[in-house]
Amino acid sequence: MTAYHWLMLVPLLALLGLAAWTDLRWRIIPNWLNLAILFAGLTRALTDPWMDIGLGRALLGALLGFGLMFIPFALNALRGGDIKLMTALGAWLGPWGIFLVFVIEKLYGLIFVLAQAAASGKLRQLAGNSARLAVNVAHVRDLGVEHVEESGRKFRSIDRPLPYAVPVLAAVVTLLLWISQSGW
What is the 8-class DSSP label of residue 37? Predict the structure, then answer.
């Protein structure tokens, strides 16, 4: 990527950095911030032919960002700001980019949760609770969705949930650095 490409990504990185900060501090991503990310992404798709993501791919990326997050959101595993954030980022990154961010974020999220559990001395509890939850999810047809949701709330290993925007920011930066190095 050229200096021009990086310059065009400044609004994304600034807004996403602000989202990570607010999520880390207050565990919330304000609606106005997600709308700003979405609007900036769609505007960039309409006005910048050099980024190779037109309006169609931006909208498809937003739709995929929403779709990837819908089931965890429906199961109360994520909050509304998280699904809105991935939808907004899809407008910037397109379908392939948002999918890669989704996968990379899961890896960073796992590392952050393990570090948080280890720091609070709850790594063993996290492993046990994760095993219980996995068994419940595997038997969701027999137990029902309500039981699985309740067990997810009951078997918490950490006191505060992970601020979702932090690993998302790390994933976006990782993807952009990879793109700049590989010429993708």
Answer: H
Contacts of 101 (CB under 8 A, 6+ apart): 86, 89, 93, 168, 171, 172, 175
Q: How far apart are CA 43 and CA 35, in angstroms?
A: 12
How far is C-alpha 151 from the chain's CA centre? 23
The CA distance from 143 to 78, in Å, is 21
Q: What's the pLDDT tens digit per position in 73-115?
A: 887 778 999 999 999 999 999 999 999 999 999 999 999 989 9
* CA-wise closest residue to 166 among 35, 29, 6, 64: 29
Helix axes 10-26, 80-119, angle to 10 degrees: 60
78 vs 8: CA distance, rounded Å: 30
The answer to whether 90 and 175 have CB atoms below 8 angstroms apart is no
DSSP 8-state symbol, 141: H
Mark out the alpha helices in the chain (DSSP H runs).
Answer: 3-8, 10-26, 31-47, 55-74, 80-119, 123-138, 140-143, 145-154, 165-182
